[in-house]
Amino acid sequence: MKKNLPKLKSYLNKGQIEAGCDEAGRGCLAGPVVAAAVILPPGFRHKLVRDSKTLTEAEREEARAIVLQKALAYGIGILDNTAIDKHNILNASFLAMHQALQQLSMVPEHLLIDGNRFIAYENICHTCVIKGDNKFYNIAAASILAKTHRDMLMCQLHEVHPEYGWNVNKGYPTEHHRTAILQHGITSYHRRSFRLLPEPLQLDLFTEL
After folding, report:
1. Residue 198 and residue 143 share a domain
2. Number of Cβ within a 10 Å radius of residue 52
3. Quick one: which of 5, 82, 147, 196 is 20 to 30 A from 171 by CA?
4. pLDDT at residue 54 is higher than 60
């Protein structure tokens, strides 16, 4: 049984249409960064809608279904590894959030952004909230949609390159993933701007391309 779970808030500014934004996959070595934006009904509450990292895979899928059913509007943004290498991961995360916001069927009056930085979108006021997925339901909902959508994409890429174990590690820098890079090299889905291996091996990795 989970204890000491934080109490999330339904809004920052009462009476405004607020969209929560979060991303998944910033620290991965391969695959896209995925962002989500979610507008929830006023007063929304649900015990399963919280920081996606605190949920099991089964709980995340259940929470995803709840968010999709209850959300007034949601959007998903995706920037692939080549865009990440071009823009850097921080800017790519912001651009993915912008894509997600563009998909909303309602225009929010205020944005709640997980983290401490953001590039303003469409002159809509925003507030950055460190660990926001532990503080606001709409950011938590966005974290769930971003995480589950990205996990689905990485499982699809696993079918193309099963040797890297992306169905399990989802592209994160696990020992198995890095060992597979050392043994098999990199794929077109790896982020070349990231340190995929320790420095001497990283240099050898790209010298062989």
Report:
1. no
2. 23
3. 5
4. yes
